[in-house]
Design goal:
The structure is a single chain. The protein is an alpha+beta fold. It is about 20% helix and about 20% strand. The strands form two sheets. Strands 1, 2, 3, 4 and 5 form a five-stranded antiparallel sheet that branches. Strand 4 and strand 5 form a beta hairpin. It is elongated, with a radius of gyration of 25 Å. About 10% of the residues are buried.
């Protein structure tokens, strides 16, 4: 297996800055200075692969090692930059589209959650349950606040497929394809 070494922090920061500007893919190379070393990173169009949080298929030449070329990769959160579409396969484009949709949905939900103004509490379990995996039981102590006259009292339970706030539409848990169930008080 290959052993990867991390370049120094200053060079990493500069690599990332130039990468985000799109220079690696539009110009085919970036050059950065590190602690006593200069790095020239080149993208080989035949070898570059973008997969989730890793970009591989690049080479780095180091100033004090004239004839040596090293494999080079970027790991970290996927950031779409100018020119990378040439190196992105259909599966990655699909993941990118999903991430963009999810980000837009999260932004929409964040706006929606602001309506609660800190009046919503949630506890998330660490283990989801799958469809047709047996019977589950819970105990619940309902702490009603009489001063609110039942307004906003609710409990929700969802499967591992649940990713929203509140109960989903039919079908509910207990039926094929069910995702969540909600119990509401009406005062």
């Amino acid at each position: 297996a290959d052993t990867w070494e991390t370049i120094d922090t200053a060079a990493c920061i500069e690599c990332e800055r130039q990468y985000r500007m799109g220079l690696l893919f539009t110009q085919g190379r970036i050059a950065v200075m590190g602690k006593g070393k200069a790095y020239e990173i080149t993208a080989d169009p035949q070898m570059v692969k973008i997969r989730n949080d890793e970009i591989s298929g690049m080479n780095a030449s180091v100033s004090n090692e004239r004839h040596d070329s090293h494999k080079f990769r970027r790991t970290g959160r996927r950031i779409i930059v100018k020119g990378d579409e040439k190196f992105t396969d259909k599966a990655q484009k699909s993941r990118d589209r999903y991430e963009a949709e999810w980000k837009a949905e999260r932004k929409r939900r964040k706006t929606e959650y602001k309506k609660f103004e800190g009046d919503a509490q949630g506890i998330r379990g660490t283990h989801g349950f799958m469809e047709d995996s047996g019977k589950y039981t819970w105990s619940l102590k309902w702490c009603h606040e009489p001063g609110r006259q039942g307004e906003g009292d609710a409990v929700g339970i969802c499967s591992e497929l649940g990713d929203g706030f509140g109960p989903y539409k039919l079908p509910l848990l207990g039926t094929s394809g069910g995702v969540s169930i909600g119990l509401y008080a009406n005062g």
